[in-house]
Amino acid sequence: MSNIIHDENPKLMKGNEALAEASLRAGLQAYFGYPITPQSEILEYLEEKAPQHPDTVVLQAESEVASINMVYGAAGAGARVMTTSSSPGISLMQEGISYIAAAELPCVIANVQRGGPGLGTIQPAQGDYFQAVKGGGHGDYHMIVLAPSSVQEMADFVFDGFRLAEEYRMPSMILADGALGQMMEKIYLPKAGSLPKQDEPWATVGKPAARERNYITSLHIEPDKMEMINLHLQDKYRKLKKEVRCELTNVENADIILVAFGLTARICNKVMELARAKGLNVGVLRPITLYPFPTEIIAQYADPMRMFLTVEMNAGQMVEDVRLAVNGRCPVYFKGRMGGMVPTPEEILLEVEAMAEKQRITNQSAGYL
Amino acid sequence: MNSTVNEQMEVVYHKPQTLTDTPMHYCPGCGHGVVHRVLMEVIDEMGIAERTVGVAPVGCSVFAYHYMNVDMQEAAHGRASAVATGVRRVLPDKFVFSYQGDGDLAAIGTGETIHTINRGENILMVFVNNGIYGMTGGQMAPTSLCGMVTSTSPYGRDAAQVGHPLKITEMIAQLPGAYFVARHSVHTPSAVRKLKKAFKASFEAQKEKKGTCFIEVVSNCPSGWKMTPNESNAWMEQHMFPHFPPGDIKVPASMK
Question: How far is CA A241 from CA A146, A289, B196, in A?
């Protein structure tokens, strides 16, 4: 669980800037990035603050491909390192992320998502869920995926991201979106120096005569060795399950549970308020870790008397994981907007009301009423 | 053999501490083994092994970390100089080298090559150019000569279709970040001595944080070229050297 120490006084900050400032306070040793809307403020902020942080490397790379490989090199040398980008740029990083996961290097990667596919739009979206949680690059690997839904979490998840990445020796992704990156909110920044960093005995820093050489690699040409590496990674992903995080609001006795992450979870909280005012018993289940996914928690609430509505800013991605968790025990509906369109609480409420009506008729015909 | 005789013998040639005992996978007669040895000899003799990190990407030298007894990172295809940048930036007082082939450095990694050197990263880039993709079985490389027959240019490289062999070393020598640029080979003892001198000068420059040192080694590929080692060396002199002439390309005044 997260145990972050915060400043006593709040600040008003933009999500991108909060993430950047939190990274410096987390003891960031190196940042490599490339400009792309809607997250360029992160690179701009770090470049501006660089003179006050002479021990932190901040470098604008020639591409996202170069950025992620610089991250690989610096992480392999034992540094606390981060890169950030937005959807198309994250696509370019996928090969490097696969290498980082395979070589078991810790780092934080933030994706401030925009609408796609292709060049798409610079407006917020959640279309990179599959890419983030299923392993967008080649081979069987995962990242820790944290989904912030406030500027506060944009900052806090940098700390959680580094802590988990270093503990499990794997990349962490902060899966945000353009709205979270651009909006301003009151936040309490995490305190500088409150995230200890351990020495990495495996890092390539120059081989003292007394120890064997260290090497960072993802190449194991013999298939039996490569399978062992895969088994080791899968074992690690199983252990990671204990880090699952989920926010439950009014779900215990809810007839309809809204499942949403990030920005859409905030919208769903408003939907819940509106629905409850109309006498509908609605709750919200917000996965905070998208990987590991709160499968068991969702399964716990999946009974025939309930209905689920998954709300996403995509064509229906997380809903597949919700359906796997529910496993046919109750209906799972989906409401999505795409291409940078943010759903309004009112349009989601219409879905909820239609579901409630269906539920009422079903219950009536079953003789429950 | 008599042990007293052994004791009287003077050791004139030995394996440097910086090479492991692992037998190399390189084909008989391939230049890679010699380039490895020369590079490691220099690191050993300069006493910098404990402060050196190497990066070898996909290509024939992808297993370099099995042979080079220093801390090493294996990089994705084309990205060695970006990985080396990451290492160098967080370890500013260490020595960093990349060891790349022609496909890696001059095709898929051209962007990283140019920008790493343009930033003047304080690293040594070793560029082994044998005009072919050796590891994948002899396909056409960015540096394959015109008319050269490879598995993907079975009728010979046609410049009208796929362009001319890329002189990337001459190109990057134009960049202000390139401090010392030279082209050598390892097919004769005197060539090996020249290469060794260039590696040493490069690490000396790195100590002074002068910028990127870039050493191309024109080499052979007996398997890919389908020749005996001797034939391949003769072919290299006759055909590769006219297009890729050995010698200094950019030498700072302080080194002259």
Answer: 13, 10, 53
Measure in Å the smallest separation between the Cα of A14 and chain B Cα atoms: 28
Interface check A31 vs B, CB under 8 A: no
Q: How many CB atoms lie within 10 A of CB A178?
A: 27
Do A11-242 and A245-364 share a fold?
yes
The DSSP symbol for A137 reads S
Out of B63, B86, B112, whose CB is closest to A72?
B86
Strands B95-101 and B52-57: parallel
* Cα–Cα distance, A233 to A144 (Å, whole number): 13
% of chain A with per-residue pLDDT over 90 = 95
CA distances from B168 to A21, A228, B210 (A): 41, 40, 21
The percentage of residues in chain B with a pLDDT greater than 90, rounded to a whole number, is 93
Reported as type and span, the H/E element at residue B178 is strand B178-185
Q: Across residues A13-34, what is the average pLDDT?
A: 98
Q: How far is Cα B35 from Cα A89, in angstroms, rounded to an integer?
A: 37
Phi first, then psi, for residue B129 (nearest 5°) are: -110, 105
CB contact under 8 A, A69 and B79: yes
Domains in chain A: boundaries: 11-242, 245-364
- What average pLDDT score do residues A271-285 get? 98
CATH number given to A11-242: 3.40.50.970
Q: Looking at chain B, which residue has its C-alpha nearest residue A82?
A: B86
pLDDT in tens, A76-121: 999 999 999 999 999 999 999 999 999 999 999 999 999 999 999 9
Domains of chain B and CATH, by start: 24-130+161-197+206-219+232-255 (3.40.50.970)
- Closest partner residue to B90 (CB to CB) among A62, A74, A213 is A74
| Lowest-pLDDT range of A358-367, B26-35, B95-104 | A358-367
- Give the gap in angstroms from C-alpha B191 to the nearest C-alpha of chain A: 29
For A203-253, write each residue's pLDDT tens digit: 999 999 999 999 999 999 999 999 999 999 999 999 999 999 999 999 999
| Architecture of the domain defined by A245-364 | 3-Layer(aba) Sandwich (3.40)
A182: CB partners within 8 A, 6+ apart: A14, A15, A16, A38
Name the burial class of residue A79, with classes exposed (0-12), middle (13-18) and buried (19+) by CB atoms within 10 angstroms of its CB.
buried
The pLDDT of residue B1 is 47
Among the listed residues A262, A313, A306, A260, the one whose alpha carbon sits nearest the alpha carbon of residue A285? A260
| A59 touches B at CB < 8 Å | yes
Q: What are phi and psi of A177, to 5 degrees?
A: -150, 170
pLDDT digits (tens, 9 = 90+) for A126-156: 999 999 999 999 999 999 999 999 999 999 9
- Indicate the residue type of B108: I
Across chain A, where does the E strand assignment appear?
11-14, 30-33, 57-60, 81-85, 107-113, 144-146, 171-177, 184-187, 215-216, 246-249, 256-259, 282-287, 289-291, 307-312, 332-336
